[in-house]
Amino acid sequence: MNTAPRTIAILFHENNRKRDLSGYAITFLAKFWRQDGNRVRYLFGTRKFVPADLLLIHVDLSIVPDEYLEFASRYPIALNRAVKDIRKSRVSTNLVRRSDSYSRHVIVKSDLNYGGSPEQILRRNSSRWTRLLPNRFGPDNGDSSSFEASSGYRIYDSLAQVPRAYLERNDVVVEKFLPEKEENLFFIRHYEFLGDRSTCTRLASREPIVKDQTVVRIEEIGPHPEIVEARKRLNFDYGKFDYVLHDGRPILLDTNKTTGADRVSSRELNARRRYRANGIYSYFV
Fold this sequence. Notes:
By secondary structure, the protein is an alpha+beta fold. The protein contains seven helices and 14 strands.
């Protein structure tokens, strides 16, 4: 590991300036970099250029505005500069179209990352933002075939049971519901990475939609080679991929370049963060 002090810049959206950033995992990695003697600068927007050895783009939107990518090109190393669009309609390989005859379970989601919440916040805080895609689905008229989690996801027994209104919207996607399940538990795998360092965990829940508040068990595992290859194909330097193994096949569910932070800390979690934080030094070799 190259221990020479460096200046590391993290580029946030301009409207993040007054937000609490502790909900992002990157702030915990930044603490480790500072402990190692590096300078870490937070940049908000593209108006002011601050010299740095490396810039990490951390714009919490599904589609990164071109001005941020152009700004990043001024730095000698710009992480995630090739990651512009992480909408599910761009990265999912399990989409179901309205004209398909798919007869098994499907799941309806927002096309945007994190249900479009970052876009809604930006819309409220900036008159420059002109698009608003909802992050919650409306009522489904009591359709008993659907499952509604706190995330707003809905699961249906088949494509035929998905309300027509959802199928006609351009802000949601319908995917095959391909869960990883063992006995009475559902699982999701989190592959988190930075540079040449990565960790992977498998989370168990009794609910079909595995979220932090429903997790009953966490175990450390190795990432599936096909998911590691997907990271290379999608040009991610930093982020988190959510996936499952369904019938032994890896299914990529979500890609995230502005990973959130767990609210409850632990020795194991801190150790994983420390390990991934050291991945920044692979860019300085």
